[in-house]
């Protein structure tokens, strides 16, 4: 089973075997190809292929001690250099990627996002189109394990955008001490808040913007967001929100 570090290395372009090999070599220090092959569980032929690949990616180097030749993983900071290089290449090629993006005359009725990184697409669209006078209606969990905690830097940009562009936000929160403390952290002057007294609490959030309703389920291991594009459903949810807001 892959661990979190192996998954992280795969996100910057390493294969699963390369990630395992790099981490193994990092732990062992300078060692022979044969020893690495045994530790990683691959054949002698395969280990040399993997070592050549990691050398070409600048993550492993050859060292000599007397007449013996060993392999040594470069320091972990090299991974940051690689990630930054990939980021620069993506940024440079963004106009080409955007030119290949299909245009949609009508948005899909339902979109599903499986993790916080994918969810950024919705927020980018929001920050591209939202204007002064728009209103975002939010049912919030008021809990510290919300998306703000999972993707704080990006969520901060969204909050700054809403404030700078005069987008009004109204938020319904459970009447708990945790929710009140949480709102102090993310609250902005243009945000109006109402705490609902009673037993209402949830691990799901919902918000309405224009003709879109977004449902977000949150727990420690998984986050899913469903976006429905429907004026009629958005109007219904907006009516329900107003009923609670006016209580």
Radius of gyration: 25 Å
Report the CATH C-level class of the largest domain: Alpha Beta
SSE pattern:
HHHHEEHHEHEHHEHEEEEH
Q: How many DSSP H or I helices?
A: 11
* N→C terminal distance: 51 Å
What is the CATH topology of the largest domain? Endonuclease, Chain A
* Overall morphology: elongated
Describe this protein's structure.
The chain is built from 11 helices and 9 strands. The chain is of the alpha+beta class. It has 2 domains: 4-78, Orthogonal Bundle (Arc Repressor Mutant, subunit A), CATH 1.10.10; 106-245, Endonuclease Chain A (Endonuclease, Chain A). The strands form 2 sheets. It has a 7-stranded mixed beta sheet with strand order 3-9-8-7-4-5-6, with helices on both faces. Helix 2 crosses helix 4 (44-56). The radius of gyration is 25 Å and the shape is elongated.
Question: What's this model, at a glance?
Answer:
The chain is α+β, with helices and mostly antiparallel strands and 247 residues long.
Structural topology:
Elements: H1 4-10, H2 16-28, H3 33-40, H4 44-56, E1 60-65, E2 68-73, H5 77-92, H6 94-100, E3 110-113, H7 116-129, E4 135-139, H8 147-150, H9 152-164, E5 168-174, H10 177-186, E6 191-196, E7 204-209, E8 212-218, E9 223-229, H11 231-245
Parallel strand pairs: 4-5, 5-6
Antiparallel strand pairs: 1-2, 3-9, 4-7, 7-8, 8-9
